[in-house]
Write a structure and sequence with these properties.
The protein has 375 residues and is an alpha+beta fold. The chain contains 7 helices and 21 strands. The protein is globular, with a radius of gyration of 23 Å. It holds the Pfam family Lectin_C.
Length: 375
């Protein structure tokens, strides 16, 4: 049955401050990292996970809101020495393709043989080599807001962590992702190409480490203090420090910590879209709404545990008015459709792919999938 907007009562809450899919909780009690992890999992969702630079600011604000806040404070990042190295882009929204890379033949090879070659240099022929992060090199920043000049070659050599910090403070981030690297190759003028040939190597935003979040998410953001050992020392747990950045710390130390409370839940039951809608409204709040790329990444991370090829969201198409809408009353501004040009039909709702690029697809209401509820 095709519903109109009138037939679906709108359940979205009005937020006079920014609403988030998760919130941070500063816990004043002092525990070691393992005890803090257990406490967060039992009383909230987990130790704090940080997905983007907005979260970095929110994490600091959460701590400062407490009148007697103390630092350092545990977050959910921990070093796993027996873990296989995972490659990440500095720009948090991007994932690393396992099949499409630009490694020079024989790379990555960790020439130092001690695990310190965790950062990547772009050569003048645009191939990649791994190199120690503590070496000082030229680097390329990416500027998201500058249409005319997106890429900036910084000729003041810095180590990788300081280069990342410089780019985040003065531009957007270190150049990240194959799309940006391809744009760099196409857009750079002859003068800039000559400069790149002269310096031979430049840092890009590709790095590898053995650090992992407590909730097993794959988010790549790292906000290490430039003075830290970036995890190459003996300490294997991460803390938020007085300057708002991260450092390593003895995991057995008794200190405060920060948990996060998740407002999105994956329901591993197969239901029609209408059944999913009423389940969420009866047991939680509503089917989930996604309004930007960061929220998309937070939701798609949860599809790892889905048991169906698609997962229902709160997207719905109305034949009566001829447009898509969120049942939470949010306007559909951010879009992530797999096939934007597909003809819209009645009795269709929006689901997210559980694999691939996690695009949105238009599925018939009577199909049965897992679904996301907002809490």
């Amino acid at each position: 049955m095709q519903w109109s907007l009138i037939l679906i009562p709108l359940m979205g809450q009005l937020c006079f401050i920014k609403c988030y899919m998760y919130e941070y909780k500063y816990i004043k009690r002092k525990m070691n990292w393992t005890e803090a992890q257990k406490y967060c999992r039992e009383n909230h969702s987990d130790l704090a996970t940080v997905t983007n630079m907005t979260d970095v600011k929110r994490l600091n604000q959460t701590a400062k809101q407490r009148l007697s806040w103390q630092r350092p404070a545990w977050i959910g990042l921990k070093k796993h020495t027996n873990r296989e190295r995972t490659w990440h882009w500095s720009l948090p929204r991007l994932s690393v393709s396992k099949t499409k890379t630009h490694w020079r033949w024989g790379e990555p090879n960790n020439d130092n043989n001690d695990g310190s070659d965790l950062c990547v240099l772009l050569m003048k022929n645009l191939t990649w080599i791994d190199d120690p992060c503590n070496k000082e090199q030229h680097f390329i920043c990416y500027n998201e807001s500058n249409v005319s000049q997106k890429f900036h070659l910084i000729e003041n050599p810095l180590n990788w962590t300081n280069a990342q910090r410089y780019c985040r403070e003065n531009h957007t981030d270190l150049i990240s992702g194959l799309q940006q690297l391809n744009q760099l190759n196409q857009s750079w003028n002859e003068d800039m190409k000559k400069k790149l040939e002269e310096v031979s190597y430049v840092f890009i935003g590709l790095f590898s480490d053995v650090w992992a979040w407590s909730d097993e998410s794959s988010f790549s953001l790292r906000n290490w203090d430039p003075q830290s050992d970036r995890g190459n020392g003996q300490h294997e747990c991460a803390v938020l420090t007085d300057n708002g950045m991260w450092n390593t710390h003895d995991c057995s130390e008794q200190i405060p910590f920060i948990c996060y409370e998740d407002h999105v839940i994956l329901i591993n039951e197969s239901r029609t879209w209408e059944e999913a809608l009423y389940y969420c409204r009866h047991h939680h709040h509503d089917l989930v709404t996604i309004t930007n790329l960061d929220e998309q990444r937070w939701v798609q991370e949860k599809t790892k545990k889905a048991t169906t090829p698609y997962v229902w969201t709160g997207l719905r198409y109305t034949c009566t008015l001829g447009f898509w809408f969120w049942v939470s009353d949010e306007v559909v501004r951010y879009k992530n459709w797999a096939s934007p040009g597909t003809v819209n039909e009645c009795d269709m709702s929006g689901a997210m792919e559980t694999g691939g690029e996690h695009k949105w697809v238009k599925k018939h209401d009577e199909e049965k999938f897992n679904f996301f509820c907002s809490k």
